[in-house]
Amino acid sequence: xxxxxxxxxxxxxxxxxxxxxxxxxxxxxxxxxxxxxxxxxxxxxxxxxxxxxxxxxxxxxxxxxxxxxxxxxxxxxxxxxxxxxxxxxxxxxxxxxxxxxxxxxxxxxxxxxxxxxxxxxxxxxxxxxxxxxxxxxxxxxxxxxxxxxxxxxxxxxxxxxxxxxxxxxxxxxxxxxxxxxxxxxxxxxxxxxxxxxxxxxxxxxxxxxxxxxxxxxxxxxxxxxxxxxxxxxxxxxxxxxxxxxxxxxxxxxxxxxxxxxxxxxxxxxxxxxxxxxxxxxxxxxxxxxxxxxxxx
Length: 296
Prior knowledge:
9-stranded antiparallel beta sheet
């Protein structure tokens, strides 16, 4: 038996600010075309999914592919092989706020025999908002815009994206110098936002852009769920991972720097090439976590 002891510093933490935001837009660039396998039939054919080709292309690429809108027997059909992954990260300057808003997890009580015997929780989802004075060109495709030669077309298809951003952690002793957290937000889609244009007056204000977003959970593979369960964590799929640089006692965590350098990229040193910024998915984080724990 022992008496409770209240630590004077470790629990007096606060989190503030947002900085070093990076955007990772979905890259569905067509890499190549390949013959459909299995071949479509009249019953399995889907408009826009299959392509036909003709031989009037360039010398380097002699074929031209066109979407097939109807099924024709004895025709060779092709499908596209897209990159299908989040692209290289780009810096997002001018971020003023990232608000995380979990929703769901609402209780539904079940009654029987004049008493409550079970409470079911709905699925938890993640929504939020982004506020900024500006945004990178790569975000236009996520905001439903298409731009060419200074001309922008709105109301276009919106691509999903990931975000990585840093928040500051402080306490009553070190103030804002205590530590920081790296937030990884997955599979987000931005909704249309209001932009208020006002005449310049004696109290001018810069336009602040604001986007609502909804994130979709990224699947964690069964193999990784089993691996992390062996070290004491029972995981479900998630749309948000947060990595602390320090624990509450002020000790450095052993995986923060590795994740930080992977997500934001590195410059080349000692004759080695630098690494492009790449979004680490939940499976990647789990691999790092299980490896660092197995290494002691």
